[in-house]
Design brief:
This protein has 284 residues and is α/β, with parallel strands linked by helices. The chain has helices at residues 2-12, 22-31, 74-84, 87-107, 120-123, 128-139, 152-161, 165-172, 188-192, 203-207, 212-227, 240-249, 265-274, and strands spanning 40-49, 55-66, 70-72, 113-117, 146-151, 175-181, 198-201, 231-234, 253-254. It binds ligand C2E and magnesium ion (3 copies).
Length: 284
């Protein structure tokens, strides 16, 4: 099993091509029913408001603990879960579990927004917006506390499907974020037709913030976001210099290892109450 995972990881990194390999099929087989067997967990990563320095939101990130393979990263299982349709079940679980946790914190007086990653596979189901509404009602999290993140490269496939889910979510008060912004091929004209409320600067650009040309690129995204009235969140903030540069540009929010690692909800709550970043020791 260990060698299998090694090969599939290599495939995910594009080192070998194993379209319908037995290894990939094994992951798909193991993914089926994994939610039901309780192998999935939600981890949360804080987002900081750069004007106040306060934690204002958490992003939910899926974690798969397989009994033999151990912790399998989303970079590996998400594409397979999307191809096989299993992402629907995983996505619903993550939304349900994360909104239950954040609604519980809210009852204790901690009012945070929740960001949840959503696949185009989910978005292209005609009743997706209604499902989100139902899950939020059951968990008690107000609709305006949720933000759905769709990657820039997937948002256009939703436009093609034309089922209006994003507009319906927006009507409910849910925020719409374009994730990994700057890496896709959306045009401004296309973006303007969508009810987007936020863009997330991809971590690849944040990483290059100290070199001049790339700083101009991030500054351009921040300026574009401000001009369009969108909130701008920078991902992958790892150094104080990056944080300072983003603050100087007027970026609204930041997320990254410097400010807190993704971790299980109890550890995130402890760190929030103590006012400290989530330390690497408790984070995965
Ligand atoms: P994403 O939504 O862009 O999430 C950010 C990723 O960057 C996460 O990786 C996070 O752990 C990582 N990260 C956060 N801060 C830093 C930092 O300072 N430095 C670096 N190098 N990385 C940082 P993760 O958790 O492995 O997730 C990878 C991707 O998998 C996510 O990218 C998202 O596209 C997808 N994903 C994760 N959970 C879900 C889910 O529940 N549903 C769907 N559809 N996709 C998910
Ligand atoms: Mg995301
Ligand atoms: Mg991203
Ligand atoms: Mg990403």
């Amino acid at each position: 099993a260990y060698e299998d995972m090694h090969r599939v990881r290599a495939e995910a990194r594009g080192l070998v091509h194993l379209e319908q390999s037995p290894e990939r099929l094994r992951v798909e087989t193991e993914l089926r029913g994994a939610v039901g067997r309780g192998e999935f967990r939600v981890h949360l990563q804080p987002q900081i408001d750069l004007a106040s320095g306060r934690v204002v939101a958490v992003e939910a990130l899926a974690r798969w603990y397989h009994p033999e393979m151990g912790l399998v990263s989303p970079g590996l299982f998400v594409p397979i879960a999307e191809d096989s349709g299993i992402i629907e079940e995983i996505g619903e679980y993550i939304l349900r579990e994360a909104s239950r946790v954040v609604a519980g914190w809210r009852e204790q007086g901690m009012d945070l927004e929740l960001a949840v990653n959503v696949s185009a596979v989910q978005l292209n189901k005609p009743d997706f917006a209604e499902l989100v509404h139902k899950v939020l009602m059951e968990s008690g999290l107000p609709c305006d506390r949720l933000v759905v993140e769709v990657t820039e490269s997937q948002v256009m496939s939703h436009v093609a499907a034309g089922n209006g889910n994003l507009h319906r979510l927006r009507e409910l008060g849910v925020g719409i974020s374009v994730d990994d912004f700057g890496t896709g091929y959306s045009s401004l004209a296309q973006l303007r037709r969508l009810p987007v409320t936020e863009v997330k600067v991809d971590q690849a650009f944040t990483a290059q913030l100290t070199d001049e040309g790339s700083s101009a690129f991030v500054a351009g995204i921040v300026g574009l976001g401000q001009g369009l009235g969108l909130r701008v969140v920078a991902e992958g903030v790892e150094t104080p210099a990056q944080l300072q540069a983003l603050q100087d540009m007027g970026c609204h929010r930041a997320q990254g290892y410097l400010l807190g690692r993704p971790a299980e909800p109890a550890a995130v709550l402890d760190a929030l109450l103590a006012g400290t970043p989530v330390p690497a020791s408790v984070a995965v």
